[in-house]
Amino acid sequence: MLTNVGEGLDLYEILLEIENRGIAFEQLLTIPEQDEWIYSDGKSTTCVAFILAMYKEAGVFDPFYDSVQVTEFTIRDAYMLKIFESNTTRLPGWCNTENGKVPFCQILGEYRMELPEYNSVEPYAHMNENCPSLPPHYQRPSKC
Length: 144
Description:
Number of helices: 4
Shape: elongated
Number of domains: 3
């Protein structure tokens, strides 16, 4: 959609370019970031995108490899992926000895993590590219 925009544009020049292309600013903000984009200071990634990029290279997102952009994921999206062990009897015994049982192992930390909807979303093509992110509830429609 925004191919060959040119490098080194400031905000004003970007706004002028998208106006010339007939693209609204609001529409520009919703374009999914592509994993292969390289910015003026290099690749841009977050800790969760880095981990998910390793998962992607390991085949976790097959057969959707080419249509999943890990830069579109949040930490919540990552822990909601249905890629983790779901049989809690296969988890080490020390995982759930304190403060009740949870479906995951928390290795470190003074406080017990709460991960709503943990391990509940099967990976799919174009995952998280159209998900709303409005506070305070951040509701996630199915297959957004």
